Amino acid sequence: FLSQSGNMNDTLYYKVFTNKPENWKKGSPVTYLNKSTQPFLIFMGSKTYPNIKTGTTHFMKLLQPYQPNAKLVLVKGRHHAGMIFQFLGPHNAAYKEIIDFMSASVK
């Protein structure tokens, strides 16, 4: 993201990802995609940060050859933090979808 954003001086993400591209590659799940990659079910809030939307779209495109049925669930009206916090409550509507996905993924 930092190298594509055109703002290599943006230090917001350096605490977590450092300013070294080799570390970004090691920390990116894209690096590890292959035919043995475990199944993915991805949730994203419709009001999330632009960089998350871009990264998720990119990830889904690269995942497609390995998992053509991988699913991206767009949750309307949710920001990034809201997407995370919604899973704290046991009565979340997404739980059934997650449980069904997990059950179908067990071989």
Poorly predicted ranges: none
Strand content: 5-15%
Q: State the secondary-structure class.
A: mainly alpha
Determine the mean pLDDT.
84
Largest β-sheet summary: 2 strands, parallel
> What pattern of helices and strands is seen along the backbone?
HHHEHEHH
Tell me the distance between the termini: 35 Å
Number of strands: 2
Number of helices: 6
Helix content: 40-55%
Q: What integer value in Å does the Rg equal?
A: 16 Å
Spatial shape: globular
Main-sheet strand order equals 1-2
Characteristic key phrases:
107 residues, mainly alpha, two-stranded parallel ribbon, 6 helices, 2 strands
Structure description:
Helices cover 44% and strands 9% of the residues. With 107 residues, the protein is mainly alpha-helical. A two-stranded parallel sheet has the order 1-2. β1, α4 and β2 form a beta-alpha-beta unit. The longest helix has 14 residues, at 50-63.
Topology:
Blueprint: H1 2-5, H2 14-17, H3 21-27, E1 41-45, H4 50-63, E2 71-75, H5 80-85, H6 94-105
Parallel strand pairs: 1-2
Task: Summarize the structure in short.
The chain has 107 residues and is mostly helical. Helices cover 44% and strands 9% of the residues.
